[in-house]
Amino acid sequence: MEFDFGCMEPVGFVCSVELSSVGLWLTGGTGNYMAYPVTLSAHGLGMMTVMGVVIAFNMRILGFAKDISITAYDRLFMVGWAGFMLNLVSGLLLLTGYFSTYIFQGSFQLKMALILAGGILMKSIMNGIRKGRDEKVTMLLSVACLASWTGAIITGRLMAYLQ
Amino acid sequence: MEFLQPTFDWLGTSWLGVASREVSWIFVAAETVHFIGLSLLFGSLLVIDLRVVGFARFINMQAAMKFIPVAMIGFAINLLSGITFIASNPERYGPNIAFQWKMGLVLIAGLNALWFWFGEHKELSQLADGEDAEFRAKVIAGVSLLIWVVVIILGRFMPFVE
């Protein structure tokens, strides 16, 4: 495994983040070469958990397995939140280590926007169910929600290929 | 996994292998599809297995079983995209220790799923909302979740143990 410095000297805020102790720990600068793969694995696991819950919930909203009551998904949401927190922490660590690469990357920026949109749509769907909103509107939001999270996965993958 | 290497090599010389090396977006697209397939599979298993272990026991069991075909679709997507990875670079995967463990665990997960289907499926379908499953069924569901968590982690580890 190679020791990967994004910045060679602290020329400003962007590089100082990358060269912080956390940033160096992640990229192997402290001699710990397992930090990056372990963090990346945690990010993958968190993402599968979030995406899995998002898919299962929205499939229900779209009419699949209608015998499951929406309230029965509460426990699944707890698991989804745990996955999201794992993603948030591991994502922040990855961002710290490769700050100068990611922060200016279009696919990263789009990924963040899609995650934000996906989160707002999930909240909006839940609010709509509680308030008894028109089912067709909720279904439309559900399709948009699935599209947002799928887009987040696609842009996340593209981050490895696009600069 | 030496016994599979001839098959991997054959995949590498097939049209899929040639295409995945010559058309740059095929590998990236297969990776994305692999993630989505795994999300379908893992999401379905979260519904079924968390219901069976009792963590989400108010999920209707019969309705939860409807996610089994979704999990199978997710698995089929992953199998096809996974074959594309091997075809693109047959020398890379066979000797990879994380890949070997991953495939071993996927095989065990498959056997576990067969046990679930033939041994527990009928009885579980009779469960009322909130009713606890038998301990044996809980073990099968717990093992299923654990295996897939490790499979996801091993998949991410593969590039780092080459």
Polypeptide structure, described:
Chain A is an all-alpha fold and 163 residues long. Chain A has helices at 13-18, 21-27, 35-61, 74-97, 99-102, 106-131, 135-158. Chain A has one domain (13-158). Chain A is elongated. Chain B has one domain. Chain B has eight helices and no strands. In chain B, helix 7 packs antiparallel against helix 8 (135-157). Chain B is an all-alpha fold and 162 residues long. Chains A and B meet through helix 3, helix 4 and helix 7 of A and helix 3, helix 4 and helix 8 of B.
Average pLDDT, all residues of chain A: 91
Oligomer: heterodimer
Number of helices of chain B: 8
Give the tally of structural domains of chain B.
1
How many strand elements of chain A? 0
Share of residues in helices of chain B? over 70%
* Distinct helical segment count of chain A: 7
Short key terms for the protein model shown above:
A: 163 residues, mainly alpha, 7 helices, B: 162 residues, 8 helices
Summarize the structure.
The complex is a heterodimer of chains A (163) and B (162). Chain A is built from seven helices and no strands.
Fold blueprint:
The complex is a heterodimer of chains A (163) and B (162).
Chain A: H1 13-18, H2 21-27, H3 35-61, H4 74-97, H5 99-102, H6 106-131, H7 135-158
Helix pairs in contact in A: 2-4, 3-4, 3-7, 6-7
Chain B: H1 5-13, H2 15-22, H3 24-53, H4 61-65, H5 67-88, H6 90-93, H7 97-125, H8 135-157
Helix pairs in contact in B: 1-5, 2-3, 2-5, 3-5, 3-8, 7-8
